[in-house]
Amino acid sequence: MKRKDFLRLASIGTGIATLSPSLLACRSDGNTDLVLPDNAFSRPLAFPEKIRATDFELAAETARRKLAGDAASDVYTLNGSLPSPTIRVKRGESLAIDYQNRIDQESIIHWHGLIVPPDMDGHPKDAVQPSQTYNYRFDIDQRAGTYWYHPHPDKLTGPQVYRGLGGLFIIEDEEEQALNLPSGDYELPLIVQEKRFSDSGEMTYSLNRMARMMGFFGNTLLVNGMQAPYHEVSNRFYRLRLLNGSNARILDFSFSDNSSFYVIGSDGGLHDRPCEISSITLTPGERADLLVDFSSYSVGQEIRMTAEARNGMGGMMDGMMVGGGMMNDENNNEEGMMGDGMGSRNSGGAFLEFRVTNEEQDPFRLPQALTELSFPNEADTDRTRRIDLTMEMMQGPAINGKFFEMLRTDQKVQQGALEIWEFNNGTMMPHPMHLHATQFKMLDRSGGPLAPHERGWKDTVRIDSGETVRVLTKFDAEKGLYVFHCHNLEHEDNGMMANFEIV
């Protein structure tokens, strides 16, 4: 073993060594099938409420809802909706949104992927207390695409997203509408999230030391807040707007018969052309715009959409993180690797069934070109900025060896500067890094070629263990303080976040 690999292993091992000897019982298979309920694929898929206004309120409230099994769970809703409403706006519109915090914690909303002024971005310093309201006023001036919004208070992002706050934010423009992509009933917003449920069906969230270090991992996949629903389709093209809204789980999406589909967009909107693929890996916070062609199926056929765990750690940590295990023991006692009941067998598998129920003539034809991508020229770069992702003994992952402080400026960037940010992952786990206030172009990753969905505009990027990834971005947002962070939400809450100031 090389010295640097030994040191990285030791940094993880020091934290693990303080835990139960039952660690030795861990298994390395993190890709076992979902344990499906007896009524799997018996309920129709539901979709979040829609908001098409430019002046509206978002009221966060506590509630009790049945999500899996017979037990009700403590959740947070927005305007009574779980998942949160899908907001649809047009480029050029001006928004007035009043966020009313009626939950029992401070909170603030971040518009993930949107480029807005610093006081509109949801910086943790702007969090409002219970019973207070934050007024958002900003213009929509960016490409059509599938964005999203979610809470962003310091040390509380993980539990608030986990309990239900967060929804899709869809921007439309004339260029995209001219493509006549599948819309209406043929456009499906899908928010996939991993949750942990007890045997009675109650959703739980409880952190021990290892969950703070590695992330909170569940034992069940929900789509639009539902466990194993079905959706009826015609044998034609459908557009899927897919978000991995999990706290920590990286998911590889595909179909049960290994059929191919087309990726047409990613975090920051459409790509230049469709690309045919058979699977797509998304970290927490990443989105993908997909076209699925059901025309080769006959009425009566069924196909399931699947998701497999891809958190890595050389197999060791997938075994530790699978299901409810030691990392996420709901009693917080750090005993036993595999946890209880269904938790040990539920890290991946089918989560949504499509049923072909109707023959239909499809007017849509797959275009050869979608849009023109105008990326900045790497040769015009003003500077390269190195960002080290580190593991601090007994404390967890950090950025450049530091943990978040609310008003400390970690990086200063000139407004209008074109920079390469070089992320170097010196830890033994992957990190989805998210930059506020900008969209970027991925240049390369040392661990291999870019995936098809990584070739468009991005705001969140996976950095694998031991890997270096370079991204190119221009900082055109208004001057002020913004953050960048790991979108493993337990990492973020534990301090894997830093401020950058545009000056």
CATH topology of the largest domain: Immunoglobulin-like
> How many strand elements?
32
Total of DSSP H or I helical runs spanning 4+ residues: 6
Radius of gyration: 22 Å
Estimate the strand proportion: 35-45%
- Structural class of the secondary structure composition? mainly beta
The CATH H-level superfamily of the largest domain is Cupredoxins -  blue copper proteins
Mean pLDDT: 89
Specify the helix fraction band: under 10%
Instruction: Name the CATH class of the largest domain.
Output: Mainly Beta
Summarize the structure.
This protein is 8% helix and 39% strand.
Walk me through this protein's architecture:
The protein is mainly β and 503 residues long. It is 8% helix and 39% strand. A seven-stranded mixed beta sheet has the order 12-11-10-14-19-16-17, with no helix packed on it. The chain has a six-stranded mixed beta sheet with strand order 23-22-25-30-27-28. A hairpin with a 3-residue loop joins strand 22 and strand 23 (396-399). The protein is globular. It comes from Fodinibius salsisoli.
